[in-house]
What does this fold into?
Amino acid sequence: MTIPHGSGNLVGLPFPTAAKPRVRDIGLRANLRRATGTIRAKRAAVVEEVERTGDWEPLREAGRAIKAWTMRNLPELLERFETAATEAGAVVHWARDADEANRIVGDLIRARNQREIVKVKSMATQEIGLNEALAAQGIEATETDLAELIVQLAGDEPSHILVPAIHKNRSEIRELFAARMPGTDASLTDEPAALAEAARRHLRAKFLSAKVAVSGANFAVAETGTLVVVESEGNGRMCLTLPETLISVVGVEKILPRFADLEVFLQLLPRSSTGERMNPYTSMWTGATDGDGPSDVHIVLIDNGRSATLADEVGRQALHCIRCSACLNVCPVYERTGGHAYGSVYPGPIGAILSPQLTGVAANKSLPYASSLCGACYEVCPVKINIPEVLVHLRQEAPKNAAEKSAMATMGWVMRSRRRYEAGLRAARMGSSPWRGKGSLSRLPWPMSGWTSSRDLPVPPRESFRDWWKREAAEGTGANGEGE
Amino acid sequence: MSAREEVLARLRTALRDAPVEPEPVRDYRREGTTDPEELRALLVDRLRDYKATVHETTPDGLPTTLSAVLADATVLAVPADLPVEWLAGHTGEVRADPDVPGLDTSDAVLTGAAVAIAETGTIVLDAGPAQGRRALTLVPDRHVCVLFAEQVVATVPEAIARLRSPASPLTWISGPSATSDIELRRVEGVHGPRRLDVVLVGAADG
It folds into this structure.
């Protein structure tokens, strides 16, 4: 059988086109630089705290291994999850793609005669475009996470996995609230505490009267049928506790085998995402509980391209992602372009490998190139996803234009032979002399022009290391090193 | 074919040629300090770092401490099974397990907890004794939580091992409600309780 890809908010304009105006936006770049700089420092401090006990690497390795084992056994674990959740009183639904998931959620809400629902921030529901699909059915979904609320009020798109409004600074948010949030007035200041207070007052009545909430889940435990939501503000607890009906949209890859596996991920996730030892609130619920929380509990398990991603032996590790966004915060490309340039709800390095696999690389072929392959993302990933490896792999999969194909083929031919490689380097050194002093080459002659049309090459040094080694060895001076 | 059958069939097809994965190795640290004084000091430090207010007392001193901590709580919500002696010194109105509107007009809620994690400054509620249902500790603007020294463990794995089962809902709380959504700076107090008081009950002679 051929495995179909997914659909939804995963494809935008080609990355170079979308990035161009954004790298010139000085205000955007300042907001991003300040925010990512803050979070990088916080993450480094709390990760270092664990590194001092020697425990960070064992935790990362356990996280990687548990995810890899889970993916290998996913069909059986999903069946186990379904059985446990059903026994605990939840109703489990399955959706092949975005449209089917949206239809299931819409039908559940309309069957309960509701026109308004509250939502917990969820990447899965952003991916499938749930809010737009519900709006088309006359159902208004209110985002309750502060950053999601900012994005929704602005009619904007999220630009970061963890902090969807990272592209906006406090004074921009203040202007937005004063203009669009009922109950605010000109006296509102741009102090973050005052802005949070305004959101609290705005949403309070909605929380206390909502009949239906929609959430995602960070983890779904196969052993017990438990769902887990990790959050900060308490909007998640409000949505998960007060309404009568709770509908959770969960990607099939969110499964963990055992309840005890949470002890690994609840250490990795908060330190990697918000840079906290623990996030303020984590909720875990198993089906329905008499007299405590929603009595009508639904879980929608969605594929939407995940099975197609699982079929790729190199790329399937992208499904290990726990959506911490540490890779976004360290990425030099993300810091300059922001999240919107990626055209997908999953931006940054993880988005550059996840989005094209969910949609199929042919539909999203610029994203694997939205990286300098510096490797910082791999170093911070709490579950050790080798993002550069998958990027290079997907570049090989992507359909290429003739010039690049020819350049890639030539590069491959040159690099496969030591003799050709050394000769090529010498030729490049001699050929580059007119550009010496500039530090990089921005145009090479055909057939290499396909390579340099979208990237600069450093000017080769006057003498290669190999040539220097040979000369030194012949002169009998420096070469006392060990073999290769 | 149903969506369920089709999704499972796709996943099985995707894994057709995948090699067997070894059982995950879990050789991370499970236990931290068990020294009561170190545990106490670490928990207090971590709770304060996340802007919780910590009060330390003894079993005999608990009612007096609570009456001082709750002095400005005119209306207090409590779970139905809260030990009555905790409130021996309290003079305000007490509502046992009120509904949501009743919670919304309460000044504070007083509960116990199931377990606490010193290294992360986390309190875990598991709907067990003196904890009540989840809405109780969510709707009022202030949560006062009584924690006994023997409920404190050092690490996350120790806490997971102590929790009875996830069959009842679990709420992990680390400090008051907060957000980092504006310029990634942490601000305390959004939708959950904006004030968290932890009353830590040490040994009798403490």
